[in-house]
Amino acid sequence: MDSKEYLKTDHKNLRVIKTEILFTPLLIVFPLIIASYLISDWYLRGYVQGNSSAFEGELILGIIILIGNIMFDIPFVKSLIHYRKK
Amino acid sequence: MVKVAEKIKNTREKINAVDFDAHWYRRAFHAFGASLIFYYILPDVDWINVLKIWVPFFIVLFAIILEILRLSGKVSKDHFFGLRMYEEKRIGSYVFFAVGILILFDFFPQQIAIPCILCACLGDPVIGELRHRFGMRHVYAFGFLLCMFFFVVAWYKSDIKLMLLASVIGGVGAVVGETKKFQWLDDDFMIQIVPAVLLLIVWVSAQHFGLGLPGPIVHPLEMPW
């Protein structure tokens, strides 16, 4: 999709590809950790201690980050698998 | 020894076979930006507050220097993945994105900064994706509603009239910011800063008129000591 829009890089350049490979787990895992933390913080410091209204914002924010990232990570990972099979 | 060399060769072949879809890489990178609000989770302790100022500043400074080196040809564009054609001879969007977030962190309260970051990180790629599938008018209407929702989440604890005002102004500001793209000012910057500046005016005005402002959305981690 939109491959013509993007600058071409020399794909034989191992350093570039390695950098992207190193970034991929961070791109996918870090937002999930942050979203999980926000949801668990709502539960532990809010819901369990009977103060959930003060932490509702964190819960919604956690859900937004979770859904937003999954929405874009799935096609990204699919494209990775697709190219790997090529 | 031969086996090790063979393994290295195989691994290199595998790595060479991996190609990335720049389009989805860019989208995933945008969405990743939403997790940067972990900045507000960091404990409110003196030495961490100092780090909160300087670490983002040096990261952005590093990105700016890298871009200057790329534009001057001292670093090859082959070292950058997912750049768009129009970014070949101008500063990459990621720098504008980072500068916008740095300004929000340093000069705006989190009630303004967080929804603006969400607009850039999630609103912008959603609008971009929908643009491929639907007409422009529908896309911006949806983009407005989505960005408005982010402001509702941040301002729902305030006075209801103030919440509605802030969410409409924020949504309009984000969509206007998204549509504006200049040679030296990218939409990734504008989508954050336009609504932020408009909401800062609302924030200051609300204080002046004694309206109930929203409390913080994210609470910093409490240090066990």
Number of helices of chain A: 2
Biggest interface between chains: A-B, 53 and 50 residues
Shape of chain A: elongated
Head-to-tail CA distance between termini of chain B: 52 Å
Give the CA-based shape of chain B: globular
User: Regarding quaternary structure, how should these chains be classified?
Assistant: heterodimer
Low-confidence stretches of chain B: 15-19
Largest sheet of chain A: none
Low-confidence stretches of chain A: none
Helix content of chain A: over 70%
User: Taking all residues together, what is the mean pLDDT of chain A?
Assistant: 82
Total beta strand runs of chain B: 0
What percentage of amino acids of chain A are in beta strands? under 5%
Q: What's the count of strands of chain A?
A: 0
What would you note in describing this structure?
The complex is a heterodimer of chains A (86) and B (225). By secondary structure, chain A is mainly α. Chain A has a domain at 28-86. Chain A has helices at residues 14-47, 52-85. In chain A, helix 1 packs antiparallel against helix 2 (52-85). In chain A, 26% of the residues are buried. The model of chain A has no long low-confidence stretch (mean pLDDT 82). By secondary structure, chain B is mainly α. Chain B has one domain (22-209). Chain B has helices at 2-17, 22-32, 46-71, 93-107, 110-133, 136-155, 160-179, 187-209. The longest helix of chain B has 26 residues, at 46-71. Chain B is globular, with a radius of gyration of 21 Å. The interface between A and B is large, with 53 and 50 residues.
